[in-house]
Structure formats: structure tokens, C-alpha cells
């Protein structure tokens, strides 16, 4: 981290191992992502060729232990997420969908046979997974999902639809959540199963270097052992969502920092009225505000990481970081763009791309409104947005 960002010696709060993880991921992003991301974003292309390199970097299922997974700490995973999102939100989203959602679902709720079969090749990047929870008419209220799995002899038969599912068109397996006669259950669905169709959503104004899809499930037949045996009720997918939300709380800081550093560098070089615009009071005010927001967000994320590593992290605390840090990151990216003037709307500079991506990040894994109400329920003891039955199920 540069001295111009690290106002409170954040680096001094990290161990040597944590700094090493961060620096390795940063070097990868600087050499393999930043030189090409503008072109990928413009072409709306996810750089799938980076998947083996991400696996070699040790960021797929990074925080999971056993089964060939790296087994790194929560703080190390958070730092990696921050550096990946400094490249692009789509890159961090790939790592999040693969590790915090698909792999986490199998790791938390799968059978031993499922873990042995899927997790090692997923950690190596040989098998890509996706996580099918959201539906066309069921986003913030997953309890209203209509995808249904019924027993038919020795098989499950699934019918329904999912929407905004990351990686689905390139995934080898999908973790699909469906209603059953016994409540919500999870299933590992090979994507080559007859009746499974994934269609990328296009055109998009955000997350263009990423993949989000519609999924159709038409009489998809699975063996009984495709069910995740430990996944019962909405609490199961929510436990995975919280893993992803934790990573977002870190990741968005990377987008904010890259936006700020881009604006700071530009302000030092851009001459107007025979002096760099960094010498103007209004520009310095903007830079100070951005740096302060980044510093606060880092400290929030680090606190969550320490709590998570200690086994003490609570769901409402994750909402603090997801809500506050994403809000701050969007504000920083937008403000950074103003320093760039008209040049800031070109692909030569990152802030506008980050700002557009962050509009998606603030929506997925719980909107601002949902996380506000999670915190409101914690503060008042009164859940304002779901029934008592849904609260109990969670």
C-alpha cells in the first residue's frame, strides 16, 4: 500500500504472512489484469484464460481447509479480495462465486463423497461452479422461490428458473437451491445434465468483464445423492452468502483505492493555469475525503477479519461492512472521476468503470436496503422486512 493511501499505518496491523499474500495478489493484478482490463470490459469478455493462474495463486476456495483448498486465514482472503477488485469487480466476483458460494456450499453442507469429488478440482480451477439462488421474481426474498425439486423414485426432478447467476454459462456444476416437500434444499447439478440451460445476460452497463446468466431447469433429473445432505432451509444458502458478503466488504476497498490512486496520480500531472490541479484547494479536499473513507473502510474490514479468524463474527457485523464499505467505495469512485474531468469517461482511466461495477456489487448479496434492515432489526429487536417464520428459518 502506498504511503499516500496508508494514513494510519494500516500495514503495521498486518503480519508478514498477510502482507506477503496481499503483495503477491497485487503483483498478479498489476501485471496480468490492469494492462488488459479496459479491453476486456469494452468487449464484455470475461478473461477465462486467467483461471489456471488464479488457481496457482491460491485464491480459489482460499479460506477453506482440506480437500486441496489453500486454508488461508479470513484476513488473508480479505486482502486478496481487495487486490483482485482493484483490478476489476468482475475478477473478485469470479473468485467469490467459485470459493465463497459454490465451494463453500459443498464444504459446509455436502457429503464426504461430494467434498472429495468436487472440491479438489475446483481449487485447481479445473471445475468451475456457480450458485443458483436468485430467481426472476425472487431476489431479496429467496423464501418465495418457485424452483421445485420433487422425488420420483430414486431420482430428483427439478423445474424452475434462476437469474443473475454468476459463471453459469462456463460452469461445470451448479449448486441449485429449490423448494421441496420438506422445505428448501440444495443440489449439486452437473451443467451438462439434460434440461439445464444457462444463457448469459446481455447487454449490461456494469460488470461487463464478468458473466451473469439466466438458468432454465426443465425436468432436470438427478440421482438422490446429488442433494447436499446438510443443507436444510434458507439458513444453508444464507451461510454461504455471508461468506461472499464478507469478501465484498474487503473487495470494494480495492476498487475505491484504485480509483483514488488514479485520481491522485492524474492530479499531480494535469496542468491547468500553469500548475498541477493537485495544488488546488478543492482538489485536495476531494483527495482527503477519499483517503479518509478508504482508511475507515480498511479498518472496518480488518476488524471483521480478526473477528472471523477468532470465530466470533456475527451476521449483522458482516452487514456493517457490506453496507458501509460499498457505499463509501461508490462515493470514492464517483469523486475520483470528477478529478479526471472529461478524460474520466474514457476507458483509459478506471474510476468510471469501478463506479459502474460497484452499482452491481451494492445490489448483489443483499441490497443496501436489506442490509440496512438487518442492522435495524439488530438495533431494535424488530425485524421489519420478513415474517417471524422466515426469521426463524434463517
Automatic annotation (TrEMBL):
In what residue span(s) does the Acyl-CoA dehydrogenase/oxidase N-terminal domain sit? 15-126
Kindly list the GO molecular function terms attached to this UniProt entry.
Answer: glutaryl-CoA dehydrogenase activity
Protein's recorded name: glutaryl-CoA dehydrogenase (ETF)
Task: From the UniProt record, list the reaction(s) this protein catalyses.
Answer: glutaryl-CoA + oxidized [electron-transfer flavoprotein] + 2 H(+) = (2E)-butenoyl-CoA + reduced [electron-transfer flavoprotein] + CO2
Q: Which residues form the Acyl-CoA oxidase/dehydrogenase middle domain?
A: 130-220
Q: What class of enzyme is it?
A: oxidoreductase
Specify the superkingdom.
Bacteria
Q: Please state every residue range assigned to the domain named Acyl-CoA dehydrogenase/oxidase C-terminal.
A: 232-379
The UniProt entry's sequence similarity note says: Belongs to the acyl-CoA dehydrogenase family.
Per the UniProt entry, the Enzyme Commission number(s) are 1.3.8.6
Stored Gene3D superfamilies: Acyl-CoA dehydrogenase/oxidase, N-terminal domain, Butyryl-CoA Dehydrogenase, subunit A, domain 2, Butyryl-CoA Dehydrogenase, subunit A, domain 3
The cofactor required is:
FAD
- Pathway annotation: Amino-acid metabolism; tryptophan metabolism; Amino-acid metabolism; lysine degradation
Q: Which InterPro entries match?
A: Acyl-CoA_DH_CS, Acyl-CoA_Oxase/DH_mid-dom, Acyl-CoA_Oxase/DH_mid-dom_sf, AcylCo_DH-like_C, AcylCo_DH/oxidase_C, AcylCoA_DH/ox_N, AcylCoA_DH/ox_N_sf, AcylCoA_DH/oxidase_NM_dom_sf
Name any one Pfam family assigned in the record.
Acyl-CoA_dh_M
Which keywords label this protein? FAD, Flavoprotein, Oxidoreductase, Transit peptide
PROSITE patterns documented for this protein: ACYL_COA_DH_1
Amino acid at each position: 500500500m502506498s504511503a499516500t493511501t496508508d494514513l494510519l499505518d494500516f500495514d503495521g496491523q498486518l503480519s508478514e504472512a498477510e502482507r506477503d499474500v496481499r503483495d503477491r495478489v497485487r503483483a498478479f493484478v498489476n501485471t496480468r489484469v490492469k494492462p488488459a482490463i479496459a479491453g476486456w470490459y469494452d468487449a464484455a469478455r470475461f478473461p477465462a484464460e486467467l483461471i489456471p493462474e488464479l488457481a496457482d495463486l491460491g485464491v480459489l476456495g482460499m479460506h477453506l481447509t482440506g480437500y486441496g483448498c489453500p486454508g488461508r486465514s479470513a484476513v488473508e482472503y480479505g486482502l486478496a479480495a481487495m487486490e483482485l477488485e482493484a483490478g476489476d469487480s468482475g475478477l473478485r466476483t469470479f473468485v467469490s462465486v467459485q470459493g465463497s458460494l459454490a465451494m463453500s456450499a459443498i464444504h459446509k453442507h455436502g457429503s464426504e463423497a461430494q467434498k472429495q469429488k468436487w472440491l479438489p478440482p475446483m481449487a485447481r480451477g479445473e471445475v468451475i461452479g456457480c450458485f443458483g439462488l436468485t430467481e426472476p421474481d425472487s431476489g431479496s426474498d429467496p423464501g418465495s422461490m418457485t424452483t421445485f425439486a420433487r422425488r420420483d423414485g430414486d431420482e430428483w426432478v427439478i423445474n424452475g428458473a434462476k437469474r443473475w447467476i454468476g459463471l453459469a454459462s462456463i460452469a461445470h456444476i451448479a449448486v441449485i437451491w429449490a423448494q421441496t416437500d420438506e422445505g428448501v434444499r440444495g443440489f449439486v447439478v452437473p451443467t451438462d445434465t439434460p434440461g439445464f440451460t444457462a444463457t448469459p445476460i446481455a447487454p449490461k452497463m456494469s460488470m461487463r468483464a464478468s458473466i451473469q446468466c439466466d438458468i432454465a431447469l426443465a425436468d432436470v433429473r438427478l440421482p438422490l445423492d446429488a442433494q447436499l445432505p446438510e443443507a436444510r432451509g434458507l439458513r444453508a444458502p444464507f451461510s454461504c452468502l455471508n461468506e461472499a458478503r464478507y469478501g465484498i466488504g474487503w473487495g470494494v476497498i480495492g476498487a475505491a483505492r484504485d480509483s483514488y490512486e488514479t485520481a491522485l496520480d492524474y492530479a499531480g500531472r494535469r496542468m491547468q493555469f500553469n500548475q498541477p490541479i493537485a495544488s488546488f484547494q478543492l482538489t485536495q479536499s476531494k483527495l482527503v475525503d477519499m483517503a479518509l473513507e478508504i482508511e475507515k473502510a480498511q479498518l472496518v474490514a480488518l476488524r471483521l477479519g480478526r473477528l472471523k479468524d477468532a470465530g466470533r463474527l456475527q451476521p449483522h457485523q458482516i452487514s456493517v461492512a457490506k453496507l458501509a464499505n460499498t457505499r463509501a467505495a461508490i462515493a470514492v469512485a464517483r469523486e475520483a472521476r470528477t478529478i479526471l474531468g472529461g478524460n474520466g469517461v474514457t476507458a483509459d482511466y478506471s474510476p468510471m468503470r469501478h463506479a459502474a461495477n460497484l452499482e452491481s456489487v451494492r445490489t448483489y448479496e443483499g441490497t443496501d436496503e436489506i442490509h440496512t434492515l438487518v442492522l435495524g432489526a439488530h438495533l431494535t429487536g424488530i425485524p421489519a422486512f420478513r415474517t417471524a417464520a422466515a426469521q426463524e428459518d434463517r
